Amino acid sequence: MNKRFAVLHGVNLDALDRRPPEHYGGLSLTELENRIERFARELEIEVSFFQTNHEGEYVEELHRSSGYADGLLLNPGAWTHYAWALRDALEIAGLPAVEVHLSDVKAREGFRGHSVISEVCVATVAGLGPDGYRDALQRLKEAM
Length: 144
Ligand code: DQA
What we know:
By secondary structure, the chain is of the alpha/beta class. The protein has a single domain, classed as Rossmann fold. It is built from five helices and five strands; from the N terminus they run E-H-H-E-H-E-H-E-E-H. Helix 4 (84-93) links the parallel strand 3 and strand 4. It starts with a strand and ends with a helix. The mean pLDDT is 97. The structure holds 1,3,4-trihydroxy-5-OXO-cyclohexanecarboxylic acid. 1,3,4-trihydroxy-5-OXO-cyclohexanecarboxylic acid (DQA) is lined by residues 12, 75, 77-78, 80, 101-103, 105, 112.
C-alpha cells in the first residue's frame, strides 16, 4: 500500500499568492497543492492537505495526524521560528516529519534562521520553491 503523507501548511500560507514573489514564487496555495499532488503521484505517495492560521488548530491536527498518515511534511510558516508548542505536538504525533520552506530562510532576516521543529524532523528542505516539496516527499519516503 502507498504511504500516506499529510502536508500541513501553517500561518499565512493560505495567502501565498499575495506574498513577496521573490521569496514565494507567486503561486497560490491551490496551485502549490496541485504541484505537490503531481510530485506525489510520480513517487507513488498519497497526500492530504491541511492549512490553518490558528496555532491551536495546527497543534490539534498534529495530534490527530497519526490516525490517518504515515508521515508529515510541515511548513508552519512564521510559527517555525518561535512556536515551541509545535515541537511538543510533533513529538506527540510520533511520526517521521520533514520540514519544508519555500524560501531560503537562512539567507533572510535573522529571526528566520532558527527553527523550533528542525531537531525533531528527519530533514529540512528550504529555498527550492515548490520543487522543494518534491525533495521533501522523497526524503520522507526514504526515511520510512
Ligand atoms: C516560510 C518561511 C517563514 O519564515 C515565513 O514566515 C513563512 C513561509 C517559507 O515557506 O519560506 O510564512 O515558511
